[in-house]
Amino acid sequence: MPQPFLVSDAVADALQHGRPVVALESTIISHGLPRPRNLEAAKEFEQILLDTGVTPATIAVLDGIPRIGLDADGVARIANEDMVKASVRDLPILSAKGISGATTVAATAYLAGKAGVRVFATGGLGGVHRGANATFDESADLSSLALAGVTVVAAGVKSVLDIAGTLERLETLSVPVVGYRTTNFPSFWLTESGEQIDWSVESPAEIARVMRSQDALGHGQGIIVANPLPSDLQWEPEEHDRVLLEALAEADAQGIRGKAVTPFLLSYIVGASGGRSLEVNLDIARNNVRLAGEIAGAWSALARE
Ligand code: PSU
Ligand code: MN
Predict the structure, then answer these.
(1) What does this protein's record comment on cofactor binding (predicted)?
(2) Strand, coil or helix: what is 72?
(3) Percent of the chain whose predicted confidence (pLDDT) is above 70
(4) With respect to CATH, is domain 6-304 assigned 3.40.50.300?
């Protein structure tokens, strides 16, 4: 049997010694952020972790091999090559064909879980698309998080999606959702979506205790930590609402469907906002990476007890 994935030396060493590790996804780099800012961002996210003693594990499929932890060349490849967007179901196909792919939240969480990386930072999760009652377009991010025992830090889901519907599906899938110091679920660029969730958590240590209890119960789901951007950093709500409607109308007019929808909307919105949405997007990701690093630290400390 070929090895199903490769763990970098740095990540393997950290895991073996119980040091904190945070997984990072690659679709946000290759399909969610424009070049050349995407490469700067990929390096910056890793550096934020390294600066606080946390080992970054950026995940992608390179030449058919899923990799947990990339070297500098691997990071440059996910930013600069035109890689396919890879969800969980694409992994065996990429593997057999020996081709590369940037992993979505679904595929990243799956691979992180297999490798024993317990905390994962992203920007926003995929979810239930508007009109999903007719198209069935619901991101595999949701069903994957019901299987991967990984804690994902995300600023909720974008308002391009059906936020209430996404929260309903997460309830059905029994995925715990906790707000970080809030019960108002964030809508990515905006601090609050107006949708309420049941629980908030106050500290990384509390999240680590939730993880430990989840493990003890043995149910195996991931945990979503909804981490809102502070309101002084959010996108201006009026501009957000205007650009969002424009983007949805344009996707509809151009007949964009399936896995192309999310990348299309993201890049359209960057252009239509004159880059403003991109700056907020980067702040969101940094904010999530920092919190994920703290959670990974708390998790290591708890495991040592
Ligand atoms: N949401 C964001 N930014 C992103 C994505 C989602 O705010 O970059 C990416 C993630 O990689 C996520 C994927 O896993 O899009 C979801 O795509 P789909 O809706 O096709 O499942
Ligand atoms: Mn989809």
Answers:
(1) Binds 1 Mn(2+) ion per subunit.
(2) helix
(3) 99
(4) no
